[in-house]
Specification:
308 residues, Alpha-Beta Plaits, six-stranded mixed β-sheet, 10 helices, 34% helix, elongated
Length: 308
């Protein structure tokens, strides 16, 4: 797999606290990569190490195979959770200031900025002061300032914070569009629904360690662990007898419409799935059986609690 970003054994300590402990991960090119974890897990520290806001105590950060230097940072766009806009500046001047800091010419910067302002429907605010912006409008300006120089790696820390559902969805579509046009996106959030909707791969940081990495689809399937939901017409004794020795009920049967019952089970071995289906079909008036794929939110909770 072609990786744009490689983190190799990165550690970082502050006085009396180890923020990152031997963290390694790889971010595939052209993907949206979710960086998850509870508060204080080390996500923001890792982002700061990637962008050289903070230097690691040990380990390396490679962008396109080269160790990240001050010059390489120009290829990274970073929108932090704590937004930083100068309230007394005019909106257009503020956006122009950030674009120029990233090496853009004044002409190119104004052309692209005005295109983005039109796109996100804030063109009328170009000459207004930043202090007049609502939180959501300020978010849009910060987003534009992050992407305007078209970096190959974008990092968004809680990008939907402060947005109403309509504008959050609008921003989500813009992030997907950036990926489709070739950018790689690292996306740090607590919003698990957003992770399932837009992330291709995830890493879960907990207590300063990388505890889980992989594609969203693979992680959900592996975490499911051969869990199935069965719709049938047997009583508990008959049902348990049918699956004895090869599967374990995870819930008590509950009645549903049509006189059927629903039971969740775990099948220990892949090769026994077919046998379980045959037994249930013969002895329990089997109506349906379907694999249960856990949500990213379920996986997050299980992993943080050490139950995954």
């Amino acid at each position: 797999m072609d990786n744009i970003l490689t983190i190799e054994h990165v550690s970082k300590s502050y006085t009396g606290h180890k923020a990152l402990d031997d963290v390694s991960l790889e971010v595939p090119r052209g993907a949206i990569y979710g960086l998850l974890g509870p508060n204080g897990a080390g996500k923001t520290t890792l982002i700061r190490v990637i962008t050289r806001i903070t230097l690691a105590d040990a380990g390396r950060v490679l962008l396109d195979g080269k160790e990240v230097t001050t010059d390489e940072v120009f290829h990274i766009g970073y929108m932090p959770e704590e937004r930083g806009l100068y309230k007394k500046m005019k909106v257009g001047e503020q956006a122009m200031f950030f674009a120029r800091l990233k090496g853009m010419s004044r002409r190119d910067a104004e052309t692209r900025l005005r295109e983005w302002f039109e796109r996100l429907e804030i063109a009328d605010w170009w000459g207004r002061k930043v202090e007049d912006l609502s939180k959501g409008m300020a978010q849009k300006v910060q987003f534009i300032s992050t992407v305007v120089h078209e970096p190959k790696l974008l990092i968004f820390d809680e990008p939907f914070s402060g947005f109403d559902p309509i504008n959050a969805d609008r921003l989500k579509q813009e992030i997907l569009g950036l990926r489709d046009r070739g950018a790689t996106v690292i996306f740090s959030t607590h919003n698990m629904a957003s992770v399932e909707e837009i992330c291709d791969h995830i890493t879960l940081i907990n207590k300063s360690h990388n505890v889980l990495s992989g594609s969203v689809e693979e992680i959900r399937r592996e975490a499911g662990g051969n869990t199935f939901e069965v719709i049938h017409r047997a009583d508990d004794e008959q049902f348990n007898l049918a699956i004895a020795g090869i599967a374990t009920p995870l819930t008590e049967s509950r009645g549903i419409v049509g006189g059927y019952r629903e039971t969740k089970i775990h099948i220990a071995k892949d090769e026994d799935v077919k046998v379980v289906i045959e037994r249930l079909n013969n002895k329990c008036d089997l109506r349906a059986i379907s694999e249960v794929i856990p949500s990213i939110n379920d996986i997050f909770i299980r992993a943080v609690n050490g139950a995954l």
